[in-house]
Design a protein that fits this description.
Strand order of the largest sheet: 4-3-9-10
Strand content: 5-15%
Number of strands: 15
Largest sheet: 4 strands, parallel
Oligomer: single chain
Mean pLDDT: 92
Low-confidence stretches: 398-404
Structural class: alpha/beta
Number of helices: 15
Helix content: 40-55%
Amino acid sequence: MALQLYNTLTAKKAPFVAIDDNHIKFYVCGPTVYNRVHIGNARPAVVFDTLFRVLNELYPKVTYARNLTDVDDKIIQAALDNNESIDALTKRFTTAYHEDMAAINNLSPTVEPKATEHIDDMLALIQQLIDKGHAYEADGHVLFDVRSMDDYGKLSKRDLDDMLAGARVEVADYKRYAGDFVLWKPANEGEPYWSSPFGNGRPGWHLECSAMIKKHLGETIDIHGGGRDLIFPHHENEIAQSECAHDKPFVNYWLHNGYINIDGDKMSKSLGNFRMVNDLLTQYDGEVLRFALLSAHYRSELNFSEDLLSQAKSTLDTLYGYLQAIDKASLDKVDIKSSAAFKALLDDINTPIAISELHRLGKAVKKGEGDAVAAEFVAVADMLGLLQKTPEQWFQGDTKDGLSNNKAVNAKVAQLNAARANKDYALADSIRDELTEQGVQLTRDGWRRM
């Protein structure tokens, strides 16, 4: 079975055809590093990390670029509010982002370009657009002329004439048309800026991704991913800039993940219901968050709740229980491409079906159906970025003093089992109660900390 992907541009699922079978080029919009990331930011990171793993299995070389926006109005304001330099702020939150992504088992991208390191590339792109009549200078700004592009709006399926109809938008007097967007903006006093032929200023947000993609991946790439909220205006404007500058298609496959709701409500600043990844990590293992994000198909909305997280934790407990019967070191490498779980991932990254296959394999492992099944179980878990701890680490905790504590618990459990074998149920009940008071829960396959 070939890889099938749903393309937002064509609004249908189709077989993936690479530009070059020897080298796949793949880009995902990363964070603006002015704060910790919320669970909505984590969803595309996990979804496209999974696709990255699938592509690596299929092709000899995959270049996965995920950018960092480190110059932005929000960054400037956050630095002022915190009374720190922009450089210190962005470095701090870049490190925090890497920590959060590692905690939910995301692989590092192949390249991670930063906006501030590509200003010259952005200026060159602006000049190309001006030279070709797609951009103009006005009042210290450079703007893209959306009416200069015949099919502007093709990704979001928006008609240019209807785009601003009925919208209460105050249009800047330097714009030729209300929908024109900024490529370069003048810096206010005290703000960071770069020198340019258009005056001291900084780039527009949309421009950054187009320039970084051109620099690291080329003028036409295989796949571009991101959240649905980026379809318009961000990705629409990326298409406009890149295709008008280079006179060729920009991206062959556009992939967008669905929104996250919190307890049934849309996650929004007005509702104050943002769930930050680092806060969630104080309550749940990163694999619990990852499993929850993979539990629904990436294009569907996901209702993120305590119930979902509890269910994810319980399911992982079961899967780690199956893993206890496996000696990974003794297993031969398996060709995962023949597995039903991998075929599910080939069908537009269908992680719910892949997870159900992981369950089926785990049950087969428990029945003792052989090393081949065990190897497939481990390979599928690895492909999903799950079961990356040992069962002992998962069930018994991975603290500095965990070894000595775990030995004591193991000794108590052995005493309890011996008491049961000797039919000394009073002693067994007493030991069980003692373990419960210590926060230890007995399971079918051993024990875990509550």
